[in-house]
Amino acid sequence: MKFDLDGKICLVTGGSRGIGFEIARSLLAEKARVIICGRKADSLEKAKEALSAPENLMTVQAHIGKPEEVDRLFETIDKTYGRLDILINNVGMNLITPGIADLDPGLWQKIMDTNLGGTFLVSRKAAFMMRAQTRGKIVTISSVAATKASPGMGIYGIAKAGIEMMTKVLASELAPFNIQVNAVAPAMVRTKFSEPFWSNAELLAHITKTIPMGRIAEIEDVVKPVLFLASEGSSYITGQTLMVDGGSTAI
Ligand SMILES: NC(=O)c1ccc[n+]([C@@H]2O[C@H](COP(=O)([O-])OP(=O)(O)OC[C@H]3O[C@@H](n4cnc5c(N)ncnc54)[C@H](OP(=O)(O)O)[C@@H]3O)[C@@H](O)[C@H]2O)c1
């Protein structure tokens, strides 16, 4: 499947492993120029080695929840390429949380700061840059947890629901500037992030029962819809969240 992303400048937040890493790999296969960011230098280094595309890949150590680090990330992109064509807001973190009645406000803040606050900080800088270019694509990774209240993932789901509304708000603000903003909402994907769930056979059997397709997603199932929303094929689609969930929210 070709998406015509040759020469596009793409930022993938959290591209050092999991879904972000595979998105970066697929963008590089499309001959795009890719910037990945993450908090840990050693993970970025490993990703750089594994992706083995020295001319087309740049890694920047940056925590997306820290405004000064996001500013530095965008200064680097601006200095190196002078533009940004595609932003993939991939960073997301989850900690198993108790119900709201028993939740520590510090835990709430931590999840909100990265998932919602960090996505805002990065999207804000990208929107500013893309508006001046009158061109761009923003694709954000949400989750079915934004639609369905999932036990232990309540606060994560609230943050993801915020991201989906941010997608609509940005889409409407940026539509006059030829910028499309969309999200992809996967159900469980087989990554390190979700390993505690799929590595437990009993839990996995319980989860797959709720998915009409009878299996959890592999990373590739998510990457292709993301590339579609980053490509010209989706030029009249904006403000949408595409459920990539094997039918689990259809029932
Ligand atoms: N896996 C699933 O089942 C699933 C399902 C639905 C939605 N999603 C969503 O898909 C996205 C990717 O998930 P994943 O499973 O691939 O996650 P993952 O394997 O945990 O990878 C997360 C990536 O983000 C980076 N990262 C984390 N916090 C960061 C921060 N504050 N600043 C910069 N980079 C940060 C990590 O690198 P460092 O640790 O070095 O920072 C890593 O590269 C997330 O938004 C997640 O919510 C996942």
Question: How would you summarize what this structure contains?
Answer:
With 251 residues, this protein is α/β, with parallel strands linked by helices.
How would you describe this protein?
The mean pLDDT is 97. Helix 1 (18-29) packs across helix 8, helix 3 (67-81) runs parallel beside helix 4 (105-133) and helix 4 (105-133) runs parallel beside helix 5 (154-174). The radius of gyration is 17 Å and the shape is globular. The protein has helices spanning 18-29, 41-51, 67-81, 105-133, 154-174, 195-198, 201-209, 219-230, and strands at residues 9-13, 33-38, 57-61, 86-89, 136-141, 179-186, 241-244. The protein has 251 residues and is α/β, with parallel strands linked by helices. It has a seven-stranded parallel sheet, with helices on both faces. The chain has a single domain (9-187, 219-241), classed as Rossmann fold, CATH 3.40.50.720. The chain is built from eight helices and seven strands. 45% of the residues lie in helices and 15% in strands. The structure holds NADP nicotinamide-adenine-dinucleotide phosphate. The site of NADP nicotinamide-adenine-dinucleotide phosphate has 31 residues, from helix 1, strand 2 and helix 4.
